[in-house]
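This section describes the prediction task in plain terms. A model, or a person checking by hand, is given the sequence of a single protein chain and must write out its three-dimensional structure as a string of tokens. No templates, partner chains or ligands are provided. The sample shown here is typical of the held-out split.
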Amino acid sequence: MKSRIKTNEKKFYRYMECLAIEMTRRCNLNCKFCAKGKAQNVDITHEIIDKTLDEYAIEQEMITHNPCRNVKVVKTEKKEKQVYTMEELIAILEKLTLKAPTDYKLFFSLAIYTGMRRGELLGLEWKDIDYHSGVLSIVRTSNYRNATTGTYAGTPKTKASCRYIKLSRELLTMFEAYHTEQEEQSVKCGDQWQDYDRIFTTWNGEPMHPNTPYTWLQRFCDAEGLVFVADFWK
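The expected answer:
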């Protein structure tokens, strides 16, 4: 009986050791080669496995040693983000003013002047604007998980992310102009219009996919000979 328990323990120990090594290896690979990988994910994953084995496997006497102690987490250098120069941003704003449709002109002007994230911009609803005070409330984000879930509203990352922004007269005028255009579009669509109250939408009022404005600007910059810095718009 004791011999069988010892054999099972060895099998379980070896399995968990391989699991810990493989999970950490994959996280390291994601950090090194995936543009979206973050070094902190490696530490977090390793910590979760380590803590689980300590608090459950060892406590339940399934194993006598935590294999995570033998795993070395590879530290990766933090990738420096690219940024625009003031001249490059001015050039983009000038081209947007001259050639962009009202919705994208407003979207990217807001991004540049307020520093709002893409999800925050797409989560904006018309009731978030107080035209009298000129204040914009940021209280939600627009997210996309997969084709099944689709686009859904969420909350900003932290409490500090919920905030109020004072808008310039120029931005308020752009909001008013775009609101008029959207109302005209809803009349044209008739029963096809989906009233989500979102500011930035598809042709029939549905929430816009997060990649849509990003892709549009990339093509716009290519066509106009402008610099496109991907990190800036995320």
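For orientation: The chain has two domains: 2-70, 86-233.
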